[in-house]
Design goal:
This protein is an alpha+beta fold. The protein folds into 3 domains: 25 residues, no CATH class; 145 residues, no CATH class; 66 residues. It is built from 14 helices and 4 strands. It has a 4-stranded antiparallel sheet with strand order 1-2-3-4, with no helix packed on it. A hairpin with a 2-residue loop joins strand 3 and strand 4. The longest helix has 28 residues. The radius of gyration is 27 Å and the shape is flat.
C-alpha cells in the first residue's frame, strides 16, 4: 500500500505527507497547542501545591548555604550538596560534623539515624512511584519530609499522575537549591564569620523531634534519646560521644519496650 493517500473531494486531491495534509494548494497542520496547554495547567497545579514548601525551603536552604560558607567551604560545594545530596537535615549534619573533625563512619551513622524515617515514606508511596519506572529513581532521590507530606495528602488522581509527581519533586528541590545559592552567595560577600550559625542544626533537630513526638503522641522515646546523648557527652569527650549516645539510646529503648510488653501482656505499638 502506498504511504501517500490520494483522496478526492470537490475535485481537489487530498494528500497525506510528512509535513501535513494538503488539498490542492491549501495545507493543514496538526496543532500541538492542546498538549502545551495541558502541560502548562499541570505545572501550574503542581506549583500551587508546592507553595508552602517554597516558603520553607528557600529559608532553610539559605541557612545551609550560609552555614557552609561560614565553615570555610566554597560556594560550589554547597550547591553540589544541594543538587546531588538533597537531604535537608543530613546536609547540615555533614557540614557541621566534617568541620568538627568527625570521621566518615560517624557521619554515615548519624545520617542513617536521621533519615531512617524515609524507609517508611517510601513504602507508603511504592505503588505510586512503581507505576512510573522512568522517573522512579528521581522520585525516590527527591523524597523529603515536605515532599512526602504533599504527595501523601494529594488526591488519588494526583498520585497516579506522573507529571504531577515529577513536577512537585523537581520544584521542591529547585527551591532548596535556590535557597542554598542565595545563602552561599550572601556568605561569600560577608567578610567576617557569623557566630551562632551552628545552632541552626540544633534548632532543626528540635523542630523535627517535636514534630515527630506530636505525630506519634509518645514522648518517652524522645526523652530517652535526649538523656542518652546528654549522658554520652558527659562521659566521653569529642566525636566519640555520638556513637556512645546512639548505643545508649538503643539500649534504653529496648528496655523501655520490654517493660511495656510486660505491662501490656506482650502487646505494644511503641
Amino acid at each position: 500500500m502506498d504511504k501517500k493517500l490520494d483522496l478526492h473531494k470537490d475535485g481537489l486531491p487530498l494528500q497525506q505527507t510528512r509535513s501535513g495534509l494538503t488539498r490542492g494548494r491549501q495545507r493543514f497542520y496538526c496543532s500541538s497547542m492542546p498538549m502545551q496547554k495541558a502541560n502548562s495547567k499541570s505545572f501550574a497545579h503542581a506549583f500551587k501545591a508546592s507553595i508552602p514548601v517554597l516558603l520553607g525551603y528557600v529559608t532553610i536552604g539559605f541557612g545551609f548555604g550560609l552555614l557552609a560558607v561560614n565553615k570555610g567551604y566554597p560556594v560550589w560545594l554547597a550547591l553540589f550538596m544541594s543538587i546531588f545530596v538533597f537531604a535537608g537535615a543530613a546536609q547540615y549534619i555533614g557540614i557541621s560534623l566534617f568541620a568538627a573533625g568527625a570521621t566518615v563512619a560517624q557521619i554515615i551513622l548519624v545520617t542513617l539515624v536521621a533519615n531512617i524515617r524515609h524507609a517508611a515514606y517510601g513504602l507508603s508511596l511504592i505503588s505510586s512511584f512503581g507505576a512510573h519506572p522512568k522517573i522512579k529513581p528521581y522520585l525516590i532521590f527527591a523524597l523529603t519530609d515536605e515532599t512526602y507530606a504533599l504527595l501523601s495528602s494529594s488526591t488519588p488522581e494526583e498520585k497516579t499522575d506522573g507529571r504531577f509527581l515529577l513536577t512537585v519533586s523537581a520544584l521542591n528541590q529547585f527551591y532548596w537549591v535556590l535557597g542554598t545559592a542565595l545563602g552561599a552567595l550572601a556568605g561569600s560577600l560577608i567578610p567576617a564569620q557569623i557566630q551562632g550559625l551552628d545552632f541552626a542544626l540544633n534548632a532543626l533537630f528540635i523542630v523535627l523531634a517535636v514534630e515527630q513526638a506530636l505525630r506519634l503522641k509518645k514522648a518517652v522515646p524522645f526523652v530517652i534519646a535526649g538523656l542518652s546523648i546528654f549522658l554520652a557527652y558527659r562521659l566521653v569527650e569529642g566525636s566519640g560521644a555520638i556513637a556512645l549516645g546512639f548505643l545508649m539510646a538503643i539500649a534504653g529503648l529496648a528496655v523501655y519496650n520490654k517493660v511495656r510488653q510486660g505491662s501490656t501482656g506482650g502487646k505494644t505499638n511503641a
